[in-house]
Amino acid sequence: MSSVLAATSLAAILGATAQAQEVETVAVWGRRANEIGRAKSASEGRIAYADFAVRPLLRPGELIEAVPGLAATQHSGAGKANQYFLRGFNLDHGTDLAASLDGVPLNLPSHGHGQGYLDLNVLTPEFVHDIGFRKGPYAAENGDFATAGAVAFETADHLHGDGLQAWVGENDYYRVVGSKALSQKVLVAADLSTTRGAWSTPEDSKKINLLGRAIVDGWSITALAYDAGWNATDQIPRRAVEAGTLGRLDAVDTTDGGQTSRYMLSARRRDLLRGLDTVVYIQRYKLDLYSNFTYFLDDPVNGDQFQQADQRWIYGGALTKRWTPTGGWRLRAGVSARVDDIGKVGLYRTTARVRRATVRQDALTEWSTALWGEAIRQFGKLDATFGLRADAMGADVRAGDPRNAGQVGDILVSPKLALAWRISKVFELYADAGRGFHSNDARGAVIAIDPVTGDPAERAPLLSPTDGAELGLRWMHEGLTLTAAAWALRVDSELVYVGDAGFTEAASATRRKGVELLADWRATSRLNITAAYAGTHARFNTGDRIPNAVDAVISAGASWSLTDSSTLSLTYRRLGGAPLLEDNSVRSRPTSLVNALLARDFGRASLVVEVLNVTNSKRDDIAYAYASRLPGEPARGVEDVHFHPVEPRAVRVGMKLNF
What is 408-462 written as a DSSP string? Predict the structure, then answer.
């Protein structure tokens, strides 16, 4: 994406050192029109606030769809992490997609629901001013989970001025967002929302996001609090809908849902004069999630609902140093460390959210540290970046069943290479290669006994490497930017710990390859059009298909300034079909969605009308194939497609006041 933020808060720059003179804060929001000479690959970029400020969103997590080729769906309640699709991965909440907020990592290893769990509900879209992304494992600074890609969200020191927003919409949707600068160096903000939801069983989602920030001696101190509770309508069997015994918006188990909270305190300093970037953080996280995917297959009397619980403290930090020695080299190096003190991570059998039995309950301490460096040298028109990263990770698992307790550790060294050949001022070629990795759940790395069957269980490696390569180009002329990339990824092992069952599940190595095309056209000063295509060929090394590996993602958008005071934005996203079984005998159906937003300014006030799912599509948001059992069906269950529908068309109206 060629659009990025042209400048940021002057206070963040001039306050980088203790000697900096105090100045009045000035925030400049714009676009940098040229990534040529800056980017190291065709599939990386930055997205400016101006490019997503008027993007229609059903959920906060959909903000990530501003990244070309990346799609976000949902198969459960609004408070659960989205499913993400990128480069042939069903990222199942984040296993191969790393994300950070103001330099603080958001993925959660050894999580109660799934490895690398990535809940973007902690974001308030109005607070984000910049999104950086890199696809593939080619950047030395990106570590765990950054195999398919990495996304960095940045918030602003000053949130586009003091203001208040109030939203109302169908299905009893209400939302209030406000920000206030208490001084030139202190701000507070809040995002409160509630909705009944479109489902037959009221979702009753309630969310609160609070943000506070202070600039102290060049440090940006940020406190963030997020809390949510909801009822969930999970995926339902297609056979029941086709038979008329279940409506598209109905639930089988009406007691599914959850509660979650996340509290973050971080301090960040960017010393531009010394080339230092420092961040330290502490987080407190909790989740209680209740799900029932098979209904009455395992327990015909009490049902198959289960609870996944996770409670942890997270401590960590990172330091990056940049310098330019003699000889034409530019150097970057960094070190990071993190500790997850997980007081409880458990899986329980429940009925209507009441515990009946414990499958397993554990506590563990997991730590990781990394050292990385990059050396950049220009050889004529060729920029070469040589990178190397070393990661060490370990864990001490204190399992409820002593046979599944133990300690584990591993080290991985990952070389990187990026070449950018600037043919001219408007044309650049790229070649990238590197090794990345995702960690596996530490419980799966020490497990000995399946907690359900009592049989011996296969262990997963703690670190699973991924090797990738990419060729790309970027061309830009008179407001039109075209990028193209051809890439390949090989994952050594996709043996993973299954949080829904409490054991490891074996899968062979995989290989993926694909192409990505992106066009960004600023047709006039009032009209901007973007379009992106991402196609993927994904297979196990055995030749079998990879379930839920979407073969194509197509997205497009247009932002049109109708007048000096009104803007119309449209977004289109098509999630292609995917095999649901390894033999490709059952496939999901493609789903297309169109959203629209109309904004009209009235001086200090503005009116926003948002129409989500404009065409009222009745397609699936996501689908899976497996066996389940409804009352009266055979004890062995019925193999079927289980789907979660896209939400029906909804209209939301917002009024914004700028003080």
Answer: EEEEEEEEEEEEEEEEETTEEEEEEEEEEEEEPPHHHHH--B-TTT--B-PPPPS
Q: Output 179-187 pairs: Cβ under 8 A, ≥24 positions apart.
A: 179/126, 179/127, 184/11, 184/24, 184/25, 185/11, 185/214, 185/215, 185/216, 186/212, 186/213, 186/214, 186/215, 187/157, 187/158, 187/159, 187/211, 187/212, 187/213
Going by their DSSP bridges, the two strands 605-612 and 552-563 should be labelled as unpaired
DSSP string, 335-350: EEEEEEEEEEEEEEEE
Q: Which residue has the tokens 């584990």?
A: 408
User: How far is residue 320's CA from residue 202's CA, in Å, rounded to a whole number?
Assistant: 47
Pairing type for strands 620-628 and 605-612 reads: unpaired
> Where do we find the tokens 């247009």?
558
Residues 228-276: pLDDT tens digits? 999 999 999 999 999 999 999 999 999 999 999 999 999 999 887 888 9
Which residue type is seen at 324? T
Q: Residue 548 and residue 135: Cα distance in Å, rounded?
A: 20
User: Where residue 34 falls among pLDDT bands split at 50, 70, 90?
Assistant: low
Give the integer Cα–Cα distance in Å for 187 and 27: 14
Kindly report, residue by residue over 286-296, the tens digit of the pLDDT: 999 999 999 99
Give pLDDT tens digits for 392-428. 999 999 999 999 999 999 999 999 999 999 999 999 9
- DSSP 3-state assignment of 62? helix
Q: What is the pLDDT of residues 522-533, one digit of tens each?
A: 999 999 999 999
* DSSP alpha helix (H) spans, 536-582: none
